[in-house]
Amino acid sequence: MYKFTRRQTVFAAAAGISGLSGYWLQSDDGVNDDTFRVGSPWTPDVIDPVTNGWLWRRLTVLEPLLTVDYDATVSPGLATDWHMVSDRTWEFTLREGVTFHDGTDVTAETVLPSLTRAFESSSMAAVPVESVEATADRTITIQTAVPFSPLPAHCTRGITCPVSPSAIDSDGSVNEPVGTGPFQFENWEPGSTITATANPDYHGSTAHIETLIYEGITDDQTRRLKLESGELDMARILPNKAADTLASSPDLTAYTYKIPRARYLVFDLDSAPFADRAVRRAVMYAIDRDHIVDSLLNGLGSKAVGPFPSDVTEWAAELEPYEYSPEKARSLLAEAGWETNGDSRIRDGEELSVSIWTYNTRPLLPTIAEVLQTQLQAVGFDVDISVMESSTIKQQATNGEFDTVLWSSSVLWYPDPDRLSDLVHSETATMFSGYENEAVDRHLETARRTADRDERFEQYAAVQRHIQRDLPLGWLTYYANVIGTRADVEGYRPHPVESCYHLEEVTQQR
Amino acid sequence: MTGAELCKRLLTMAIVLLGVSLLTYGLIFVTPGDPARTILTQQMGGQAPSQDAVDQFRADNGLDDPFIVQYARWMGNAVQGDLGQSYYSDRSVSDMIVQRLPNTIALAVASMVVALVIALPAGIASASNPGSRTDYAAQIGSLMGVSMPNFWLGYLLIIVCALRLNLFPVAGAAGPKYLVLPSLTLGSGMAAVIARLVRTAMLDVLDDAYIQAARSKGLRERIIVYKHALRNALVPVVTIIGLQLSYVLNGAVVIEVVFQRPGLGTLLVDAIFARDYPVVQGVTLLIGVIFVLVNFAVDLMYSRLDPRIDLGGEYT
Prior knowledge:
The structure holds two protein chains of two kinds. In chain A, helix 13 packs antiparallel against helix 14. Chain A is of the alpha+beta class. Chain A has helices spanning 2-26, 49-58, 108-120, 151-154, 220-228, 242-248, 277-286, 289-295, 326-335, 365-377, 390-399, 419-424, 438-449, 453-470, and strands spanning 35-40, 66-68, 74-76, 79-86, 89-94, 129-136, 139-144, 183-189, 193-198, 211-216, 234-235, 252-267, 302-303, 339-341, 344-347, 350-351, 353-358, 382-387, 404-410, 473-486, 489-490, 507-508. Chain A is built from 14 helices and 22 strands. Chain A has two domains: 35-251 and 487-508, D-Maltodextrin-Binding Protein, domain 2, CATH 3.40.190; 258-480, Dipeptide-binding Protein, Domain 3 (Dipeptide-binding Protein, domain 3, Roll), CATH 3.10.105. In chain A, the strands form five sheets. In chain A, strands 1, 8, 9, 10, 11, 12, 13, 17, 18, 19 and 20 form an eleven-stranded mixed β-sheet that branches. A four-stranded antiparallel β-sheet of chain A has the order 4-5-7-6, covered by helices on one side. Chain B starts with a helix and ends in an 11-residue tail after the last helix. Chain B folds into two domains: 21-93, no CATH class; 95-203 and 237-305, Orthogonal Bundle (MetI-like fold), CATH 1.10.3720.10. Chain B is mainly alpha-helical. Chains A and B meet through helix 1, helix 2, helix 5 and helix 11 of A and helix 2, helix 3, helix 5, helix 7 and helix 11 of B. Chain B: The chain crosses the membrane at residues 12-30, 105-127, 148-167, 233-259, 279-298.
């Protein structure tokens, strides 16, 4: 009797489970055939463009006044024309016939509230904008406190993207990104997904994709597995080592392309041993960057000479590279008074021991630090590695002594070489080498005031040569991005500055 | 429980929660990493903010005030039910928690169900026939369950069940089917611990004199095991299930990241990395409240399962 009951129970349970799983497997996630899913590491937690404009811009829900072209230069966006009226005044002429997603016309009046919010926000505190005005129906006039050539480049940033005045609440907050882009906001799950649909009234060519779902997936393995299982049509920022396996699968396509982002060492110029330029030069000669690119980066990316990769942007100056030469490194150290003592070196009884600080949110940095450790030990450095959080490094390096930090950052996140001011200007730099060079400051300030492109290039080239000689920063490698899509995705063109995914150009055959 | 006891109990809970909040606030405060810099960096898509921006942010959010002023301001609002606004997103912390909580509760409940469904039969079978093949199999199984790291098992299940067999989705939280793999991952680890405990507790109870007496009366073994022994063996098991709730919350952090579930775990981790103090504090306080309440519930359950235990915890 009992056995019979148990069998019955097992049978019923099995039937129940299979029935339920059948239901689950068929249950609708709101995904249709014309839905395109893209996954990247950043989870959407905020609607407001002042905080999260870069994400809305990447999805082309919002569009800025000016955009960035595929050659990393400033190009027309919502404004078709922009020019300097006087050395502190800029005029932007808005495109005609553009409407926000809610039907409101894009005019100087309707764009003004968004621009004012953006330039008043703390993220834009370093941009010396004094006033923003609507001076004609389609003319926006921006006054800066000092002559400031990089202004157009800052107008490509997501934070400046206009939203319809109806989207700005009375308390000044934005609760829906009502922009002008080829996709319009539909829905979001904070911390998880954004849904957008094609905007049929777009002023350019309309999107081929009907529905776009963006998923924030922090773990890169999960992103890749979701792409493989068909839950994503595009997975962004995958590990370099994924490129080969993606390329070998008939269902998937791998895109690898260079971006203006560099890995570099920041030296502390205020304390021993790196206060001595010869020691910094010795480090640069001791590093075999080809080996790092081949063995750790899977051959993607390339060794860096200066801040800007010349195959991505035209702002790279001709610089004398530090070629791998352990002998030269050893002789520089010996000349600087660091005598060999067994495996290490000493000077005035002190050992040549240094620490490299780095962080792991950019996955390869700690591994690269280990390679640096081995290569530097070969010429007599005693190297110790600390992996900390990037904000901790920043705080400790800004406020105290350190030896060197292995850091990585975009060198053109707004497409203007004034970015060098963030790295090496003695007063405004956000990097922490403590570099002070009057000539460099003068070049940077002159370049900011100069309108002529060629003259600016000369100024920035001079800055790059100073950095190359003085080595407050030592350039190691440039980045390549790895993006995977399903094989049936067509029309995707990777953008070097990644400010836009341009998914409106993508088609998918199913 | 008398009224006085209840008051005493509530007071202790309040003190514990106050201690938890002071400790976490203090620990985050002394952890290096400046919230202004970290949050602005995030807002600027990963770029370093200028010093002007940092100063403005600090002033806007009262971050220049001394520790005790910041803590007192936060606590003052918290006791009035206002957990503040996230520094990063400007959204209300309570809203963020309310929106994420269901995902974590669903994961916790499903994992606990998975754990019990595996652990109780395995533990009982193992204790009923000590030294048998079933016993060894169950013990080896639970040793594996205890030793396997969560994230590893998670990826394994994804590769086998989602990629090879195509039975379940890899990750997300769009429906019930998204719950299966995460709860199996988290539940199997707990099952291992609970099964071992059920086995030990059952073996203890099965040795007791009253069980011998029941056997000598000729009662059927199944009735002895399920009707007489199990109830008493459940007392320590209930405790461990309560304690396992902490495991669920810890485990949820890893599992939620691997399976990309927007829950409390991911909220907390993101907030810690962002130095988003109000969110870290809000979530920690909530987890503290859950712990205190679970402990209280476990105590109440004791006296239900074994009337000899009173709430003072002494045998009468």
